[in-house]
Amino acid sequence: MTPPSREFSPDLAPECRVLTRYLAGAEATTYILEKYRAGHAGLHLAYGTSPTWFDGVLLALARRAPFGPGIVDNYSRWFAPRSLVRYKLTLLLAVLEHSPETCRSVTAAKAGTRLGLMSGLIVAGLREAMLLFMGVVVLGPLHLAAAATMGRHR
Hints:
By secondary structure, the protein is mainly α. The protein has one domain.
């Protein structure tokens, strides 16, 4: 078995903590950190290639709190669905779904009134739109530059 690439294995604890707060609104426990590290060891098999410099930009911004993960998640969902950060978020979401401390926060539906539901959806939609707009403004030019750079090297 091939050992994981060093490019995929930075110090994962700070990254895991920030992304756990973003996805579950909770602190990363020892269990979550261990499972994230264990899953991360095989991430290079799922991702398949070496990370690009744009992957590095996305990860650097995602590791920054409070809005970094939201901006990167929203942008990459639409414009970079095969980026390394999407693989990392999917891996961590799977860990959080199986963690006793966070499983309810990522899988349970919120109870409430219709008015509360509608106002919550409107607020969430506006927040997501704002984060996507910020992502397009900040990351769009870098993504285009990365695509142009990769095109020249082929």
